[in-house]
Write a structure and sequence with these properties.
It contains seven helices and four strands; from the N terminus they run αααβααααβββ. It is of the alpha/beta class and 157 residues long. Helix 3 runs parallel beside helix 6. It has a four-stranded mixed beta sheet with strand order 1-2-4-3.
Amino acid sequence: YQRRVRDSLLQRKMSGADDKSLPLNVRKSLRDSATLRKKQEERIQKATGETYEFVVDFKDVFDKATDRDDLDKMGTVFFGDEGYFGRLANVLEKECQDDLFKEVFLEKTPGRKIKFVFQSVWSGEEAKLEDGALVLRSDRFNLWMDNFSKLNLNKLL
């Protein structure tokens, strides 16, 4: 029981739902998206055979985002099927069917982290391998992205 409580508290802390510097509507969206987050984590784990941690500085995203209408949907923007990590899960499910791709992807991401970085200048979306993690970048003018669904991870590897 104590382990489940501890894991639940850790999950909430990682989700951004307990970050008091975020407005209540944003924290509620992040809290309510916990099942979506878990779904994308499970999809990526099934595709890769490994557990990856999603790393997002939600306060940074909130501070830099210019379209305030989407912020109360932040959980869905990141963890929904059409969100950042949902679209990445689609790409990994497809690409990891190739055993060689999967092997190299796992080799290039030993930290087992997928980070999201909100850029402060316009540059579109991109993915890079940095410090043993897959890093997704998007600019502040494009909270709802499209290009990650067309991501060609083969170029990175």
